[in-house]
Design a protein that fits this description.
Layout (H helix, E strand, L loop, with lengths): L4 E5 L6 H15 L6 E5 L5 H8 L4 E4 L17 H7 L3 E4 L2 H6 L4 H13 L3 E6 L3 H5 L3 H16 L8 E4 L13 H16 L3 H6 L1 E4 L8 H5 L6 E4 L6 H14 L3
Parallel strand pairs: 1-2, 1-8, 2-3, 3-4, 4-5, 5-6, 6-7
The structure holds 1,3-dihydroxyacetonephosphate.
């Protein structure tokens, strides 16, 4: 049984007051939700503060981690063991903004997945194609390469300890959501790619959709057979919208 998982990626947003209000707002609405796993990923500097406010009801994660596993002279980096000690459950790895704006390659992303797992964190491995890649028919080649890098580096067994997030780059922050059919097709491809190495692991793998998920399109997306919740950007910055999306996942249920 795959329990749907909805995670808010707050990206680089929020004053202290805004983050407090958002954390409190999400926490207040969680009580009525059953059958959905919920998490939020604030900026590094806000993680401890949010963790202290929300307690165990809400999972907290980071948006990135250092590829270096141990302490050392790596100015500006944050290690997985530090995130674990702060109480993080998740860490987003290979978000398209990390890949496109900060030059993260699939090989580096795979190494970060390994480091995150070793630190006891659940990686949320992001994959997805650009508009140009989709229009040239390269979606499966691109997503396949991103997955294979992790499969080759870490082995298929780790896919029972991580979450994959399919985030088509053209749908992130654009208001242009993949249609449920478009998203389902890629989710089925991802599950199939993992199933080619281990069918049981693939069956248990949770695959989130991300890219302009809103309260009014969440039920339809989450109802697709291979979509197990969402990774939410803009809509996760409004507690009511985020909670409505979590409610949609709870309504659809697991499979
Ligand atoms: P939006 O929901 O703002 O499109 O962002 C999606 C995303 O990048 C989540 O990681």
């Amino acid at each position: 049984m795959r329990t749907p998982v909805v995670i808010g990626n707050w990206k680089m947003n929020g004053t202290l007051a805004e983050v407090d209000a958002l954390a409190q707002g999400v926490l207040a609405g969680l009580a009525g939700l059953a059958g959905v796993e919920v998490g939020v990923c604030p900026s590094f500097v806000h993680i401890a503060r949010v963790r202290d406010q929300v307690g165990p009801a809400l999972g907290v994660g980071a948006q990135n981690l250092a590829v270096q596993p141990a302490a050392g002279a790596y100015t500006g980096e944050v290690a997985g063991f530090m995130l674990k000690e702060l109480g993080c459950a998740y860490v987003i790895v290979g978000h398209s903004e990390r890949r496109s704006l900060f030059g993260e390659t699939s090989v580096l992303v795979a190494e970060k997945v390994a480091v995150a797992l070793d630190a006891g964190l659940t990686p949320v491995l992001c994959v997805g194609e650009t508009l140009e890649e989709r229009e040239s028919g390269a979606t499966e080649a691109v997503v396949g390469e991103q997955l294979d890098a992790v499969l080759d580096r870490c082995g298929v067994a780790v896919f029972s300890r991580l979450i994959v997030a399919y985030e088509p780059v053209w749908a992130i922050g654009t208001g242009r959501t993949a249609s449920p059919g478009q998203a389902q097709a890629v989710h089925a491809f991802i599950r199939g790619r993992v199933a080619a190495r281990d069918a049981a692991v693939a069956q248990s793998l949770r695959i989130q959709y991300g890219g302009s998920v809103k309260p009014d399109n969440a039920v339809e997306l989450f109802s697709q057979p291979d979509i197990d919740g969402g990774l939410i950007g803009g809509a996760s910055l409004k507690a009511a919208d985020f909670l409505a999306i979590c409610g949609a996942a709870a309504q659809v249920g697991g499979r």
